[in-house]
């Protein structure tokens, strides 16, 4: 099958005039394998290269069947309406499916379609529904694909929104709404993880002294202000990897990751005691509280449990209160409490 100039092109056989409408992707070949006519959609794929006069195999490369050198090979290989796969030789190298039907003058009618390359063809050639036969299901299939894509995109967006809502709900469930700190639920989860991982840590229980007096004399709004300021101070005096939680009205629990060094913990405790003991202005009034703290270390237990550590830190806290408040105490193995320096209220 050779291609070339339009000179000597055999006239197209007498086919129905409606063939372009019924098969807009067809080609008519003469007995030499030259194109004598191209359907309008197929010609649209090469708008600046008229197909009549070109050799079929000069325009296309056969993918299947192979070893095709002329129309007789093609007719013999494809038989009666057998399928073939081919590709444009010049870019865009669109893949096509085709069927060849021999006609009585030695030539053939070839009808082509895009198959799996449809979406690429729509992108490369700006095809519309008018480029396909009225009975061609291509556009309906494309509509279904687009509808499915739109539905999947809508589903993806909805899933993303639900994920964000779930994350927000979970975050809210683990957050104290007043201070923004973790709540008791967050503490329980973090404490369980740290114990299960075998990580060394310190657990500190902090209680605000005289907080009830602020509420009783200045009102709950003043009390909320004190809690917010206390949360800010505790966050500022701890490291980024530490956890500060509010577990009750004026009670807080702090977890110190990989910190069981008593002097270091004592230093943090004394800084918080000093800052929390300073007057807190509020609407022309002065709020005064102090802080008592009790700490226990995971390294003091052979097999630490959350319940035991919380109980021991609570015992150390109340030992600090009994000693006069504004103090910090360590709980040690055997149920004893060790003291730290006593500061004035």
Automatic annotation (TrEMBL):
<dbReference type="InterPro" id="IPR029787">
    <property type="entry name" value="Nucleotide_cyclase"/>
</dbReference>
<feature type="domain" description="GGDEF">
    <location>
        <begin position="199"/>
        <end position="333"/>
    </location>
</feature>
<dbReference type="InterPro" id="IPR043128">
    <property type="entry name" value="Rev_trsase/Diguanyl_cyclase"/>
</dbReference>
<protein>
    <submittedName>
        <fullName>GGDEF domain-containing protein</fullName>
    </submittedName>
</protein>
<dbReference type="InterPro" id="IPR052163">
    <property type="entry name" value="DGC-Regulatory_Protein"/>
</dbReference>
<dbReference type="GO" id="GO:0003824">
    <property type="term" value="F:catalytic activity"/>
</dbReference>
<dbReference type="InterPro" id="IPR000160">
    <property type="entry name" value="GGDEF_dom"/>
</dbReference>
<dbReference type="InterPro" id="IPR042463">
    <property type="entry name" value="HNOB_dom_associated_sf"/>
</dbReference>
<dbReference type="Pfam" id="PF00990">
    <property type="entry name" value="GGDEF"/>
</dbReference>
